[in-house]
TrEMBL record:
Domain Alpha-L-arabinofuranosidase C-terminal: 300-490
Protein name from the UniProt record: non-reducing end alpha-L-arabinofuranosidase
A Pfam family of this chain: Alpha-L-AF_C
Binding partners and assembly: Homohexamer; trimer of dimers.
Source taxon at top rank: Bacteria
Catalytic activity: Hydrolysis of terminal non-reducing alpha-L-arabinofuranoside residues in alpha-L-arabinosides
Gene3D superfamilies: Glycosidases (3.20.20.80), Golgi alpha-mannosidase II (2.60.40.1180)
Record key words, sorted: Carbohydrate metabolism, Glycosidase, Hydrolase, Signal
EC numbers for this chain: 3.2.1.55
Claim: Hydrolase is one of the keywords in the record: yes
Assigned protein family: Belongs to the glycosyl hydrolase 51 family.
Length: 497
């Protein structure tokens, strides 16, 4: 017997835009994300532009990734951009101290990243170096990227083959400044932020959206100090980083990406749902200082972080991706959509071969993970208007604990179509939803579903299509009502016309 949820969707209530930038991604110089992910050996026999792998580009273009964050992460605060321009053979090598101590040859630098963004038709989001870089270094990088005038920096850019400024908009001022980005106090960082941000200039036609390095998880004091000490007009956004750890522990095992039982699955989903509380509480602090919600909460690192795949370099953070990851992605994106008044940008960590990837590669082979397919199912929400959806969800219980079994979000796009995305986390029960539709009327319903027998199911290089979307026939539309039967362990996307 399916449990029943009743709720209403009223198109007259559609007001807040769900920024497409919530669906952003992240590519760090870490493990096999850039090198051997996006950027491959000249001799590799795959379709390429230069050394950029085009099958990966095509896959990401299909889901219209709106922005790509680069070059880190922790790497950003040790990255010196001038090492990554000019003739590749002349570029200095460095040690990637954060990630495996491997040698970084700087063959992928500013020009290559912006070429990649051009191919992807996505907006670059560059993280500048505050931890070990100077104000001058950051100022000159912005000048090199964005100035149309004559100067030593823009001459250098032209000599390196780029005439016109790129007009990069999203600009991170440091990363995790409370940790790998310099182990600072929020007071010290806020002062540094103002100094670095002052000289990261706005050039003609290229105003920067400057983003301050925000809190780690529930460090609410960090957000409070930044909001208090940095004037609203000096910062477009402030970040939040939160990773879902299956065991909840940073020390010791984080849990396996593929071998886990229901208890561990339940615990992971509970940890994932903590994002709701984090967004609410950080937003409440921001509201105190910024009632008009001018400053964005930018969740520019999120996703599941497990132990690495056995036999792989522990510093490379390579992990498989299961149906559980898809349920985490769907749940988290629903949370962000429902807080679209404050969350205006987010970046899943990380795009290829690192943490909760959407693409995995192995030599010439490439596969799309279950998480990739969730981004596909959620595409209709990008820049659509949020239709608030309040309901009481049944519980998913495990032992003495319970968590909400269902989460959802809805939006109205500019063509008048309604998009609803729903996740049923419960490993055992299907759940029915009876939704009354107010406002605009609809005649036709289309749906797609991502599900599989077990939460541990994955796509492998031998079976790339184990967890892929299928047509969903569990939704029926009547006069002013929509009935949905949401299967256990599923992500469903519904479109009403
Ligand atoms: O995404 C991996 C790492 O996690 C990033 O480099 C860092 O910012 C965070 O701690």
């Amino acid at each position: 017997n399916a449990q029943v949820v009743t709720t209403t969707l009223n198109t007259y209530e559609a007001k807040t835009t769900i920024s497409k930038h919530i669906y952003g991604h992240f590519a760090e110089h870490l493990g096999r994300c850039i090198y051997d992910g996006f950027w491959v050996d000249e001799k590799m026999d795959v379709k390429k532009q230069g050394r950029i792998r085009l099958d990966v580009v095509e896959a990401l273009k299909k889901i219209k990734i709106p922005n790509l964050r680069w070059p880190g992460g922790c790497f950003a605060d040790e990255y010196h951009w001038r090492d990554g321009i000019g003739k590749p053979a002349d570029r200095p090598k460095m040690v990637n101290t954060n990630w495996g101590g491997v040698s970084e040859d700087n063959s992928f630098g500013t020009h290559e990243f912006l070429e990649l963004c051009g191919l992807l038709n996505t907006e670059p989001y560059v993280a500048g170096n505050v931890g070990s870089g100077t104000v001058e270094e950051m100022a000159k990088w912005v000048e090199y990227l964005n100035s149309p005038a004559q100067s030593t920096m823009t001459e250098l850019r032209r000599q390196n083959g780029r005439q016109q400024p790129w007009k990069v908009t999203y600009w991170g001022v440091g990363n995790e400044s409370w940790g790998c980005g310099g182990n600072m106090t929020p007071e010290y960082y806020a002062d540094l932020y103002k100094r670095y941000a002052t000289y990261a200039r706005n050039y003609p036609g290229a105003p920067l959206k400057k983003i301050a390095s925000g809190a780690n998880s529930d460090d609410y004091r960090w957000t409070e100090v930044l909001m208090k000490n940095i004037p609203r007009n000096q910062m477009w956004g402030v970040t939040l980083h939160y990773y879902t750890l299956p065991t909840g522990n940073w020390s010791g095992s984080k849990g396996s990406a593929t071998a886990f039982n229901e208890q561990e699955y339940f615990k992971t989903m509970k940890n994932c749902l903590h994002m709701e509380e984090l967004v609410q509480k950080h937003s409440a602090i921001m509201d105190k200082y910024d009632k008009e919600k001018r400053v964005a909460l930018v969740v520019d690192e999120w996703g599941i972080w497990t132990d690495v795949e056995p036999g792989t370099n522990p510093g490379f953070l390579y992990q498989q991706n299961s149906l559980r990851d898809a349920l985490i992605a769907g749940t988290t994106l629903n949370i962000f959509n429902n807080h679209a008044d404050r969350v205006k940008m987010a970046n899943l960590a990380q795009t290829v071969n690192v943490l909760q990837s959407i693409v995995l590669t192995k030599g010439k082979e490439m596969l799309l993970t279950p998480t990739y397919h969730v981004f596909d199912l959620f595409m209709g929400h990008m820049d659509a208007k949020l239709v608030p959806m309040n309901f009481t969800t049944p519980d998913y219980t495990n032992g003495n604990e319970k968590i909400p079994a269902v989460n959802a979000s809805a939006s109205l796009d500019s063509n008048g179509k309604m998009h609803i995305t729903l996740v049923n986390i419960d490993a055992g029960k299907d759940i029915a939803l009876n939704i009354s539709l107010k406002g605009k009327s609809y005649k036709k319903v289309n749906g797609r579903i991502l599900t599989s027998r077990s939460f541990t199911d994955i796509n492998t290089f031998d079976n790339k299509n184990k967890v892929i979307p299928a047509a969903f026939n569990g939704a029926t539309i009547g006069k002013g009502s929509l009935n949905i039967k949401l299967p256990r362990l599923s992500v469903v996307s519904i479109e009403l016309e």
